[in-house]
Amino acid sequence: MNNDRKPVVISYAASKVGKLDQTRFEHEILADVVIDAVGTAGLDKTDIGSAVFTAPTPATRQRAFATFMASRLGLHCQGQIAEVSNLGITGGLAFEQACADVAGGRARVALALGIEYSSAVDAATMMEQGIRAAGDVNFQTPFGLTPIAWYALDADRYLYETGTTRRDLAAIAVKNRQHAMLNPLAQFQTPLTVADVLEQPTIVEPLGRYDVPARSDGAICLVVTSEVVARGLGKPFLRVLGRGFSHDGRHQVGSSPHDITDFPAARQATATALEDAAVSLEQVDVAELYAPCTITEALVVEAIGLAEKGRGALAAGAGETAIGGRIPVCTSGGCLSRGHPPGLTALYGIAELFDQLLHRAGKRQVAGAGLGLHLCELGNYNAALAHVMDAGN
Amino acid sequence: MEIIKVPKRLSIVPEYSAFSDTFRQGLAAGKFMTTTCSSCGNMTFPPKQHCSDCWSAEMEWTELSGNGILYARTTIHAAATQFHGEVPFSVGIVDLEEGVRLVTGLLDDPVRINNDAAIRLVILSYEDGLLFAARPA
Questions:
Q1: Domain presence at residue A225
Q2: How far apart are CA A332 and CA A218, in angstroms?
Q3: Nearest chain A Cα distance for residue B137, angstroms
Q4: pTM (2 decimals)?
Q5: Which parts of chain B have pLDDT scores under 50?
């Protein structure tokens, strides 16, 4: 790569995750966010060569949203206007595509952005689509597995094999709520106890309401430019040191027996990203993970080596993955408490690393955070996309 | 294999291609079929027109015993619209003795099926189509 074109994140703007203002249209809300993000960077709309959108959910009435939005913002791009999508990895792909346009010289500035405005549609209707994505539409979907039912199967086997309890898993939800209480962008900020988590109704056994993500709206725009432009603007920036991707060749579950609690794609993608960055896992100070359920965080921290096998949930209970602990995980509050607009979750995760690594995270700042790991996934962690990041100025 | 009549309609009716219809015809005849690659021997479920391991198109239909164990299970309390009449319902991952893994509904009758317990597959004959499920062996 031409060193002058190394892509960096110079700014972002985002709405608080939760329920967006129902009296406004999506393009109106996203326009505010884009103008805020570009203005914060000290850039102008004429600098923007590419805008890579996360594909809207079926709840969005305006189809061809990206080109519609380009017209609303008066963008005249020479790089690309696109919508990208692949389940939970969507935000990560939008980010990478924006970075690639800067690195390839196709755009001086590229936006990675999107809006999810799904609260207007009820959960059961949203799941009509979800059950067709999470599984083989003819050989698995007819059994009614919702996307989070697959994580429940992971949880069932994990509790059975390791002796971990629902109470142990609940510690992850409590830890992430404590983080979210310090994050102005977080959806859920009231105190939460282990007892609160255990008292909730079952959604997909053994997971209760607070073990699984709520429905969330969000809107976010990351501004990507080159390190050279960033230095010229005199602003600190977030840079990508390493990248890794891996797909385990399965869709939700394999055709022959395998350990569903193992998440090999998460392990491989992280190892590749660390090697690419020429750093070791021990050097990572903060990890922001795409982990929709308590069980998912337990399994990912084990898969990538942040906790020993069987200690993924116990690590949260012991404070090891809390801010101030050995390796803080999901300092934003994660999917469970920061909130989880699935297509945008990875963009919110990268934004959290921006705040942490530029030491702008306020009360949830991880002291001395120098190196961050971001991971997003699709399916039942069938694929993972990892980025190792740090700050520059 | 046992065929159980279910006096209602399916929440979602599976669709079959000209190729995979052999599986449906098997169910109708009380057989649980899948494909094995004649080139590399890989047996998988669902049945496949091409081997996902070696890409051979030389696939052979094989009848499975329907015997296996339950690997993991969940009971779904919050379902998609199509399944509202069914909640709560249970599904699981089943490993058949031939080394094939699949997902299916669970009939906890006469007892609840626990992980690593023996199961047998049964065929469910709904008013508008066929499906299968696991029962205690």
A1: yes
A2: 14
A3: 19
A4: 0.97
A5: none
